[in-house]
Amino acid sequence: xxxxxxxxxxxxxxxxxxxxxxxxxxxxxxxxxxKEEACITCHTTISPGQVKDWSVSKHxxxxxTCSSCHGGKHTGPKDVNLVQLPDEHxxxxxxxxxxxxxxxxxxxxxWTSLNALPITHVEPNELxxxxxxxxxxxxxxxxxxxxxxxxxxxxxxxxxxxxxECHTRHSFSxxxxxxxxxxxxxxxGYDHPQWEMWESGKxxxxxxxxxxxxxxxxxxxxxxQQCHLPNGTHExxxxxxxLGVRLPLPEDxxxxxxxxxxxxxxxxxxxxxxKPTARLDLINSVDMVRLTQEAWQKERDKMIKTCSQCHSxxxxxxxxxxxxxxxxxxxxxxxxxxxxxxxLYKDGIIEKPANYSFAYPDFLYFMQTGGGNMKxxxxxxxxxxxxxxxHRMRTYQGVFHMNPDYAYWYGWxxxxxxxxxxxxxxxxxxxxxxxxxxx
Length: 439
Ligand code: HEC
Ligand code: HEC
Ligand code: HEC
Ligand code: HEC
Ligand code: HEC
Ligand code: HEC
Ligand code: HEC
Ligand code: HEC
Hints:
It is a single chain. Helix 1 (about 1-25) packs antiparallel against helix 2. With about 450 residues, this protein is mainly alpha-helical. The protein has 21 helices and no strands. The radius of gyration is 26 Å and the shape is globular. The structure holds heme C (8 copies).
């Protein structure tokens, strides 16, 4: 069966140009049809894999051709600059529903939230606009004309479309996007290892065993899509989100105090007055934080409904509440560590980097703890950032993705170790600090 299919596709790929040209002759060649034929004939030499990929797509069967997306102005090697590299609006012409859902979801903020951070503007462009680092995953979201212009002005012409991130070009397959591996490239690694946590937890393990045909094919196993893009929706959002903070602040007084400390290190509250800074508006504008209890509860309730397809609602609720508690526990450790490092700034033992707004740790510079100055990196701030970005994330994300090892060894236990290291480093820095050093 498979062999036959491959054979058939092979024949199709080889005979397609002929087929198209025959059709064109039969219907008397209109200029449109022969233009189309030219794209395919020429690109069968220039980029054969793409033509093959397109030829197996639903698009090719429905008459959605190269020029439907790329326009018809470019006709050969000399006018490649006239080709249109289609953005999401081109897909929207035929897929309005998916476009509108996507536009309401969190993925639509990927590019804007990346560019909202100061770190982005002190790192090499290749990693951002070039898509080789942060920008490779944050090419999610419909770019404004201004954002596109900025990108082109820097010399980067690709990455205009985020619809091809899950059903990749040019096969644009629905089945591909339904497979959890379609999420893997981005949802993995240092600060959001959802792929690893899910895959090695019970939900993913069962999915793998089932997909390999080693248990009943009707057995249930939730995928990323089932929990996060239920019923084919393209709108995504979770209750806590990535930062794990929400408003209003918690009622518990210790947790509230810890949250305030964390918000200071995120630069959204002033370290001395605890008043909101301009950064709070920035963070709100990209939907990073649920701003009301109701907005948070709405997402939580949706999730529990999803869990209840397989578990009892009270079971699911109990599981997720433990995630909330672990977030609270993690905040306690992190706030203690922030206070220690903040004390070093206060006593002049760490100098305020020129680009920092305050003499206080600033998480939005990531590992660039000199504020962009590579000669003034603060190591203790790097340990603190790792505690926040790598280990705090794992502590609660691990619970939410049913992965005991991530929650404990890669999360909580490592936070404890970070705190120990920070205490030790701070003590040494204080002991060896020379008062009024010659500048
Ligand atoms: C006679 C040959 C020829 C024809 C006909 C042709 N192309 Fe091309 N096309 C090229 C060449 C050559 C390039 C540049 C390849 C490179 O940069 O390596 C190119 C590049 C492209 C690119 C990529 C542009 C980029 O910036 O990377 C797209 C998209 C494209 N063609 C689409 C089309 C479409 C759609 C048609 C039909 C309307 C078409 N081509 C017709 C030869 C052709
Ligand atoms: C459904 C829309 C669609 C169709 C149909 C389509 N493309 Fe594309 N193509 C895209 C998108 C989206 C991109 C990525 C644009 C970007 O990166 O900004 C792209 C990029 C390209 C590129 C440049 C990037 C690369 O990987 O080399 C080439 C060349 C190309 N297409 C050729 C073709 C050819 C030839 C056909 C017809 C056989 C075709 N495309 C049909 C949507 C389409
Ligand atoms: C000119 C109209 C048109 C444009 C433009 C277009 N599509 Fe489609 N697309 C279709 C049609 C028609 C189908 C088949 C619909 C069906 O089978 O229900 C389809 C199907 C799909 C599917 C489902 C394929 C499957 O395996 O079932 C995906 C995914 C898709 N398109 C994505 C895109 C993306 C992404 C873009 C933009 C880069 C795009 N389309 C641009 C018309 C278009
Ligand atoms: C491997 C892909 C990948 C890379 C590389 C990457 N990110 Fe992300 N980023 C993501 C994903 C996925 C999320 C969502 C994670 C979550 O919610 O757990 C995210 C979330 C974020 C958020 C929070 C968005 C929000 O609204 O909650 C910001 C800001 C951000 N990243 C900035 C950056 C910056 C700056 C860099 C580079 C210094 C970077 N990212 C590198 C994939 C990536
Ligand atoms: C985060 C991953 C992701 C992104 C980004 C994404 N899609 Fe999808 N898309 C999916 C999934 C998953 C499905 C399968 C939905 C289902 O199970 O019915 C899908 C299915 C589709 C289908 C087929 C619908 C059907 O039922 O036949 C179309 C059309 C489509 N997407 C268009 C788009 C367009 C247009 C964009 C950009 C605005 C886009 N997608 C961006 C994940 C994605
Ligand atoms: C059984 C359901 C389920 C599955 C399967 C699942 N998640 Fe989640 N996910 C959750 C829950 C629950 C949360 C936390 C929601 C909240 O804040 O209340 C979450 C949170 C997230 C977040 C926000 C940050 C975080 O981790 O807390 C991202 C991003 C995410 N999941 C991506 C994924 C990806 C990618 C996959 C597949 C590799 C996946 N999830 C599989 C249930 C699931
Ligand atoms: C090309 C990279 C990429 C792919 C592929 C991708 N995502 Fe994302 N995802 C991101 C980024 C970046 C963000 C953060 C967006 C922002 O800045 O708000 C994100 C955010 C999310 C969130 C929201 C978390 C929150 O803050 O509430 C969920 C849920 C999610 N993705 C699920 C998925 C699922 C499920 C898939 C696969 C079907 C997927 N993603 C595929 C890059 C990706
Ligand atoms: C599509 C069905 C399905 C959905 C949806 C689902 N689960 Fe599961 N879950 C399972 C199966 C099957 C198992 C393995 C058998 C068992 O332990 O019950 C499992 C196992 C678990 C476990 C036990 C893991 C262990 O190590 O023993 C927890 C906890 C859990 N799920 C919580 C949740 C939560 C919370 C949600 C919603 C966010 C959820 N599940 C959604 C099917 C599902």
